[in-house]
Amino acid sequence: MPRRAPPRISSPSCGRGRSATLRTARFCWASPHTAALNRHLFSPQLGDHRNAALQRDWREQGEAAFVTEVLHVLERREGRRDGDYARDLAELERLWLDERQPFGDAGYHTPPRR
Questions:
Q1: What is the count of structural domains for the chain?
Q2: Which of 37, 48, 59, 79 is the most buried (most CB within 10 A)?
Q3: Span 23-51, pLDDT tens digits
Q4: CA-CA distance, 56 to 77, in Å (whole number)?
Q5: Where are the alpha helices (DSSP H) in the chain?
Q6: Buried b (16+ CB within 10 A) or exposed e, 24-37
């Protein structure tokens, strides 16, 4: 049976470390599958990213204004079920959202309801 890639948390950031004219905005996203991550990273090039603000910035500023980084790789361990990874990924995503605060002008996420 082929070994699956470990789940990961990804964070494409717009304009970070680039020109002062570009805003720095973050979008954190978790995926248990590398194919889903690749689709997420490729969709702005096709013009159909699910986040309209991110897609607009991509169109206006271009691919060079975006930086993608893997924030965390959740390693697979023997005996763990996929449901365990899904819960762990959701928790990691929440923790990264809490740390990075990618809301409003600082990112592409809607602030959580408190």
A1: 1
A2: 37
A3: 567 888 787 777 877 888 889 999 999 88
A4: 39
A5: 34-46, 52-61, 82-100
A6: bbbbbbbbbeeeeb
